Amino acid sequence: MKLAICAGPATTGKTSVLRHMIKKLLKENIMVAYLKIDVQYAEEDILLQKEFGIPTKKIYSGELCPDHCNVMVLGDGLKWAKKNNCEMLFVETAGLCLRCSPYVDGGLGLVVLEATSGMNLPLKVGPMLSLADTAVVTKIDRISQAEREVFRARIQEVAPNVKIREVNALHGIGIDPLLTQVKQFMDVPTNMFLRGNPPVGTCTICVGKKEVGWQSHFGVVRALDNQNFYRGE
Amino acid sequence: MVDSITILGGRGRDGSEEPVRVINFKMGDIASIVGPTGSGKTTLINDIELFADANTPSQRRILINGNPPSPEFRDNPAFNPIALITQHTTFLSDLPVGEFLTIHTKIRSERARNTDYFLQKTLSFANQLTGEPIMVHSKMTELSGGQTRALLIADATIICETPIILLDEVENAGIHRNKAIELLREYKKIFIFVTHDPRIALLSDYRIVVKEGAISKVLFTDEYEHKFAQKVSKLDDILSELRNRIRVGERITNDCLAGIL
Ligand SMILES: Nc1nc2c(ncn2[C@@H]2O[C@H](COP(=O)(O)OP(=O)(O)O)[C@@H](O)[C@H]2O)c(=O)[nH]1
Ligand SMILES: Nc1ncnc2c1ncn2[C@@H]1O[C@H](COP(=O)(O)OP(=O)(O)O)[C@@H](O)[C@H]1O
Ligand SMILES: [Mg+2]
Ligand SMILES: [Mg+2]
Ligand SMILES: [Zn+2]
User: Fold this and answer.
1) Most CB atoms closer than 10 Å: which of A102, A155, A157, B145?
2) Averaged confidence pLDDT in chain B
């Protein structure tokens, strides 16, 4: 099973990009399954199932970070795709916390960013961008050539090793190189590992203590004027 | 180096073969695309911008220097020889104009040393196109439609040095059209205007006529039309003079008409 994990802020065009990839793969008789991981609402699974008749599924991460949820369910997802005779699994996740990244070794990692989001966005999205294989820049039809170039340069500044693909995901322009890329991957290994280190999450808020102010908490804490420090045993 | 771009004909909206099979644009050409609303003008320049390869609804193909375009053109916008400017193209950055143009010039790194020269040249080019001067300190997002269009054209022409510039119905945005064409002629590029404006169409070297999704013919501007273009410009000036008077709250009287007619 080949795997592509697609992350990116809401409404950047993740589904649009994957939809065009799926359409083209099906034309080549490559069967794809689609799994959507979102926090509390998603309907892409129904839409894509209707449009292409492929196996689709969604899972709500609820109080879990969607990227953490991804780590939990990815193994099951691959088995499910295999049972449905698919050669590839596409996972769309709403990478919301901006500290995690959902990509695993051995699978394609795509981050979808919209060119319309302002020139500083690439500086804000952290490992979701820097650990991806490819940054897919959508909505290039909406902005000037000049700003496209600046946006691209900003991505290169923070993520010099990440490939950049500019696409018009509305019309499916520029999608072909992504297909070439996903096909070049081997099947994912049975023991998969996350590409990045998960963020530190070891404070008493993580376990449900609700008082506001670092003085009430233990573990890795932080004050306004300080970097992280450890409080407690 | 780009010296020509070719359109190979595809199919019209109803699937029938496009009557014009080949159009070849050479450096220095100024061309117009004309046709009723919905006839497929925007589709045609989008095909050009996308380097269509029989993979768009029109099935057209685009060649650069007679060959399929290098994939690099699409992979890196800095190598893209085509800039498309539409009515909807806008700036989203709220940086001051000067700062943005400087960043953009620096990205085109070989010129990092004389950013100020490029800044001044770009601004003065833009300011010849628009009636309302653009200030170095204006925020990009505060520019008017005309100023935005003017700056886009200037940026593509001078900072990007893009050899092929496509303009989709920019005439309504308040650009000095004669001035634009006169200035653009100094740069040996390919300019393609989608236009409803007789002034631009007749100042072009040729016009491509689009009908029901297909290119139906190409008309080269002839001797008579060349001469007539001057009259059109005059008529147009009269209209804009009238427009100005109405705008500033004047009455149209026989006296004022005598001055301009
Ligand atoms: N103009 C334009 N719109 C796009 C593009 N990509 C996506 N969209 C639109 O952006 C909206 C959100 O896209 P969607 O794929 O659902 O985003 P997701 O939330 O990241 O999955 C939809 O209305 C799309 O039609 C693009 O390249 N250009
Ligand atoms: N050759 C073609 N084949 C199929 N559809 C076409 C073709 N040319 C144009 N169209 C469709 O016709 C519609 C109008 O075209 P458009 O380019 O927007 O017209 P214009 O810019 O002249 O107003 C669009 O929906 C476009 O997709
Ligand atoms: Mg989606
Ligand atoms: Mg149009
Ligand atoms: Zn997280």
Assistant:
1) A102
2) 88
